[in-house]
Amino acid sequence: MRQMIPLEEARQIMLDAVRPLETIKVDLPDAFGMALAEDVTAPHPLPPFDRSPLDGYALRAADTVAAGREHPAALTVTETIYAGHTAKGTVEPGTAMGIMTGAPLPPGADCVIRFEDTRREGNQVYIFSPLQPEQGVIHAGEDVAAGETVLTAGVTVDAGVTGLLAALGQTRAAVRRQPRVALFSTGDELLEPYSPLVPGRIYNSNLPALAAQVREAGGIPLPGGNRPDQTALITATIEQALKVSDLIVSTGGVSVGERDVVKEAMEAAGVEPLFWRAGFKPGTPVVCGRKDGRLVVGLSGNPAAAMITFILLVRPVLRRLGGHREIDLPRVQARMAVGFPKGGRQRRFVRAVVRWRDGGYLARPAGLQSPGAMRSLVEGNALLDVPAGHGPLKEGEMVEAILIK
Ligand SMILES: Nc1nc2c(c(=O)[nH]1)N[C@H]1C(S)=C(S)[C@@H](COP(=O)(O)OP(=O)(O)OC[C@H]3O[C@@H](n4cnc5c(N)ncnc54)[C@H](O)[C@@H]3O)O[C@H]1N2
Ligand code: MOO
């Protein structure tokens, strides 16, 4: 098994082990957050017909050539077209039709003028300046042409994608099935919810936090509870989890302590080891293996270390399984607003608050950075990527930041 490998190599090993899950058809509102499995071509143009962007009059530009303040063009209004309706007649020379925003341009008309720029007297409307043909007209297909590929496989369905699909008359979407992620924690010290807090014990925070991270990444969490630090129990848990999930993630028991039995249990469950320990902090002791085309990942028990390793290694795998083209969070260059004393032999991800200030990003480390401290992940919105061997970060220095929220 590879040991102490660089982050990028660990990530590549994991990504190489997975492929997007199968395609399913779902009702459009249920596709939110999933990735499109197929390209989408437009069955009709958008908008489907020439229409008015204004409440006003549809007319023939040629009738207004000689119009002026003193000598307005006088046109006879023959009917009014409301959105959702079509004109009964044609705009003949010397006539106009009232038209509402979104109504189709009537035959014969080639331009639209808004109400405010006209005067109405009985069935006559006065125009005070010449109009150009096409003025005030929205053309069929100006947004999307019929047959055009508007969306491609791998696009994540968000509000805009949902609206576009709906405008094209789609009621279902072909998407990738969302990955089901079996989660369990290990540790004799962990209390279940509603248990009284007793000396030496702590509440299990990793399991709910990881379930939320799975959701954020577009997966379906299957929280499996906590296991005591016993190899046989953890082995059986991994075997069961392999039957119901696409990916298995545990926390705790991956370091070098006497009861750090997850690695041993993985091997006993027949999981092929891929790597143990990766070259970054916090989260170094991560272990990863593969069985039946599924990854089994053991994260550190330390809450912040577990969540950060999830972001760096598990999230991209979940995005790939879910078929998303975008598997990475955005990275930006930020300037340190203050110094940060801790730099070391290992690459380090520092929880930080990154804000846009005066034309650039400014970074400020977010509180306590120890691997078990949770508040700095809540207060922070970014991880600063401090290279291995880098000394303390100086005020004003540029640093790369991953935006995590
Ligand atoms: N002798 C050494 N000791 C440690 C080393 C080392 O290299 N040599 N590495 C340290 C580092 S770095 C880390 S990270 C941790 C990783 O330990 P484990 O992954 O084996 O995690 P545990 O020991 O089970 O737990 C660590 C810590 O986190 C708490 N914890 C665990 N699970 C949960 C949970 N579900 N919810 C909330 N908190 C949890 C646990 O109580 C411990 O405090 O090892 C270091 N040791
Ligand atoms: O690798 Mo440990 O996660 O630094 O705390």
Short note summarizing the structure:
The chain has four domains: 2-21 and 177-321, 3-Layer(aba) Sandwich (Molybdenum Cofactor Biosythetic Enzyme, Chain A), CATH 3.40.980; 24-46 and 142-176, Molybdopterin biosynthesis moea protein, domain 2, CATH 3.90.105.10; 56-127, Molybdopterin biosynthesis moea protein, domain 3 (Molybdopterin biosynthesis moeA protein, domain 3, Beta Complex), CATH 2.170.190.11; 331-403, MoeA, C-terminal, domain IV (Beta-clip, Beta Barrel). It contains seven helices and 25 strands. It has helices spanning 7-16, 159-167, 206-216, 231-244, 262-268, 303-321, 375-379; strands at 2-5, 23-27, 40-41, 56-59, 73-81, 95-99, 111-114, 118-121, 124-127, 149-151, 172-176, 180-186, 190-191, 202-203, 220-227, 247-251, 272-278, 280-281, 287-291, 294-299, 331-336, 347-357, 360-365, 382-386, 398-403.
Report on this structure.
With 405 residues, this protein is of the alpha/beta class. It has 4 domains: 2-21 and 177-321, Molybdenum Cofactor Biosythetic Enzyme, Chain A, CATH 3.40.980; 24-46 and 142-176, Molybdopterin biosynthesis moea protein, domain 2 (Alpha-Beta Complex); 56-127, Beta Complex (Molybdopterin biosynthesis moeA protein, domain 3); 331-403, Beta-clip. 19% of the residues lie in helices and 31% in strands. It contains 7 helices and 25 strands. Strands 1-17-19-20-16-12-15 form a 7-stranded mixed β-sheet, sandwiched between helices. A hairpin with a 2-residue loop joins strand 8 and strand 9 (124-127). Ligand LQZAQKY5 is lined by residues 185, 187, 189-190, 202, 204-207, 251-257, 260, 282, 284-285, 300-303, 305, 371-372.
